[in-house]
Amino acid sequence: MAFTITLAHFCDKHGPRSIMCTQTTELSQMDQSTLPDFSKESYCKSCLLIYPKSTKGENVTTLRTEDTKTNHAFVSTQYSAIKFRVLNSIVRKCLSEEATIYDSKPMFFGDENRGYSMTQSFKIKDLEARGSERRYSFIVNCDQEHQVLENWDLIKDSILVMIEYLQKSSLKIELENSKNHEIYLRGKVQHSKSLIEMLKDDELFLKLHLWNSKLLRKLINK
Amino acid sequence: MLGRLFNNRSNEQLNSHQNSSINICHTMNNMNSLNTGNNIIEDLNSRTILYGTSNPILPININLSKFRLFIIQDKGELMVKNNFKIYYDSNITTTNNGTTTNKNKIDYNIFQFLEIMFGNSIHHDFQSNETIKIHNLESLQFTLISKHFNIKLSNQKKNLKFAIGLIIPCSIDLISTTITPNWQTIIHYLSIFQSIFIKNHLLNYNNYLDISIFYKNFIKNLKNLIITPRLLPGLNFINNNFFLKKWCFEINNWIEIKDGSKPCLVNGSKFLLTLLTIIQTVKYQLINNNSDEFIRIIIMASNSMVATKLIFILNGILPFNLKINQLNDGNIELKRDTTTTTTTNPISTGTHNDNQYHPPSPPTPHPMKKGWEIPKTPSKSITTPSLMTPCKSLIIQPNSSTNSSIPTSNSMSYLSSSLSSSSTNSSSTIFSNSLTRGFQYLQNWKNSTNNGNTGDVISSGSSFKTPSPGLEYDDYPWNSNHNGSINNNISNGYSTGSNMNTMNNNSIKFKKIELNSLNIKRSTTTLFKINNNISKNGIEGKDKFSQEFNDLMNSDIDYNYNYDSSKSVSILEIPFDDEDQEDSEDKDYDYKKLPKLCGYVQDYLPDFHIQACPNSQDLESKIISSMKNSLTQFNKSKTFLISLRIREIKEIQLTKNDEKRYTSSIRKIYYNSKPNLNYLNQDNYTKIEILFEKIRNLFKQDENDEEINKIRDYLKNL
């Protein structure tokens, strides 16, 4: 059983991209999951995993939470260093090959090669985005079909609370911005923008990592 | 009958996928029974001991007419208006002259969601040949399951892209109770549809009758899988003695009353010992079904309550981890379901003068001075006057108000079983005798019905659904009195919900318990939660998640740096903020798919591993048919057929030799009141013997909590 949780984004510039991938690894092998430094030239702010400003200069590539009780560590990186090809393919499938409905409702697809994925896709309103909205998807993948299906409600609800929070918070901030006449007038100018910027939360990805880690821990304990 | 069924068939050729491995004839017979009513017999007692809850388990309502199956090709012609070709649609009937009619008035068109189903037409997924997808279409209140496959024909340059779509009329909230617990069945049938389509319809058009037949059979099977409450195993292993005490009590009762064993006097028969040895041997296959063998335990019985007790006993040794840390032990009052308690005692005292309802009292461990006399041969055991005469006054007469269909079926089942036994003896004399005696019994029943016995109080609905133990000729009255006097409490062998809270037995005093304290939340197919702790703030499920997530988002995250010198990067180490609470984390999502085990059902259900059902003329043919069908998924199909009346256990086995052939074997594991030890696992036999000894000893002592715990420990290591 190897669950991964990927926050994917259909970037206006780069197409389907993985922003953050959280995966489980055994404590003894957690170094393998640490992502080496990589070129960020092909990333924009929209699709980049951005760490808090306080970490500037530290060359951070990996978020990690260890759990000695289960003897596992939960590691979040821009993309999976171990399953890059497969997960990248799943991100493309979810956001490009499938006719995704961005309604936060779960969709399931899978095959023997790429494992089985439950995806929940959603939009966040942003006047500075193409079409005034940015499209994201949480993808929970596992190589065993029954593991995804038997944890359907747990995964669905755990992901859904994240989506609801992100949408609600972004709407609140969007409403505040709409009162700003300057932003409203230049709303059609498209900019790359990270989730942390839209939600004005410097530690957003750290928190999402922690929540994903809790979900993975629950899935291990079951 | 089994002998006849297997005559000349042991090496019968399995033809193609669709006409041998799945029995079409049997399927066609079932076509008209799609809308049959609830097949389950349940009352407070059976709910409590089998399902772990005193509350009724409400079946999920599925509108069968809204199921839909269709097979479609994506032609890949993006510039053509109609890019999709529909090969089959279950909602459309094509007549002989080619006209089509809609069967059901459905307010949507398939083309509405074909793009969703197939995905983006431009960015095709060429990576896999077979993909499975689930879409939930909230606006239409249904779930769409689709299986996609590519086929390359010799005369075609490119792959042809097909999909089989299945619409199940359930909303997103019901997926985990309807679809995910039955996923294997759904996938299996989708594969069958795919095979049939490729083989019979890809190149040649015909009327798709074969697919229609399998489709209807699929709906029927799925419906049964969804609405039939499944057993909840593992309750003996939790730290609550209620179920374990009741289990020991029932085993002790069975050993003494049914098997006729007396301490230091009579050894009794080894029927239960044999049966539990079999269960012990195959218990992991019954629960997990991960092996290449499909095993069925089928108890043929007309008496639902006796069968329920036996299934409760069998269920007690099945391993099932409920993952409960702490549970209160007793001292809580059992909630009574007054609406159902009267229905659980449909037994007349057998005397015409006694028309009053007598509340059932708990069974005593020594109601008989002598054990039940086990017949030497099945045919004699049923009808010999020597056995029947002393019991004549005790034979429970059928209630005159009872619908005639039940006694008739009992009589027929009696005949059927006699035939079954006779055929194995190959003796026309025995056959004839059995038949004659069967008709005698039928005549006796008719006479007794005409006497107008209205001895007991049964609500009409439940009397119809719950056959009286008195109707079953073979089940010896539990409170046989060898002095010849009729015990007014003859029905007390059945501990119903009404007496469960007052159950006393020599040294065992059962504490009152409120089953709801276990906080078991379950559906027919799924255990959602079993925990006696109320979650913090009383919030559960998604609301609890939402609150936790909001708390997390509003908090500051602690982190520190860890430098990885080999990769020259830093790692942000973020500790869990709830490690101290982790152990007490509520099991809000302690979802468990329950194994396919059920209690007493009126009709045989081929998909379940354990069940009890009444005997019928075609039961054995149904079993053989379903065993053959199992060979499409498994290499072996094994059925332990238990006849309660003649105390016989037969093992029927089909083994697949190759794709087209199988061999069959039948052997009697328990016959003539003796087990055939050659066919039993000796280690397991000894283990169960020791278990029985421990249970017997339990009833000789005053304080037994410690002994109960020892039995639990023994069961855990069994």
From TrEMBL, chain A:
Membrane-spanning parts: none
For the UDENN FLCN/SMCR8-type domain, which residue ranges apply? 45-222
A GO CC annotation recorded here is: cytosol
Name the GO terms of the biological process aspect: positive regulation of TORC1 signaling
Record-linked PROSITE patterns: DENN_FLCN_SMCR8
A matching Pfam family: Folliculin
GO MF? GTPase activator activity
Signal sequence, start to end? none
Read off the InterPro entries from this record.
FLCN/SMCR8_DENN, Folliculin, Folliculin/SMCR8_longin
Protein name per UniProt? Folliculin
Lineage here is: Eukaryota, Fungi, Dikarya, Ascomycota, Saccharomycotina
From TrEMBL, chain B:
Residue span, UDENN FNIP1/2-type domain: 62-718
Matching InterPro entries:
DENN_FNIP1/2, LST4_longin
Region entry Disordered: which residue ranges? 338-379, 398-426
GO BP term (any one): amino acid transport
Q: Which UniProt keywords apply?
A: Amino-acid transport, Protein transport, Transport
Compositional bias (Polar residues): 345-356
Q: Which Pfam families match?
A: Longin_2
Of the GO CC terms on this record, one is: cytoplasm
* Taxonomy, superkingdom: Eukaryota
Regarding protein family, the annotation reads: Belongs to the LST4 family.
Name of the protein described by the UniProt record: Protein LST4
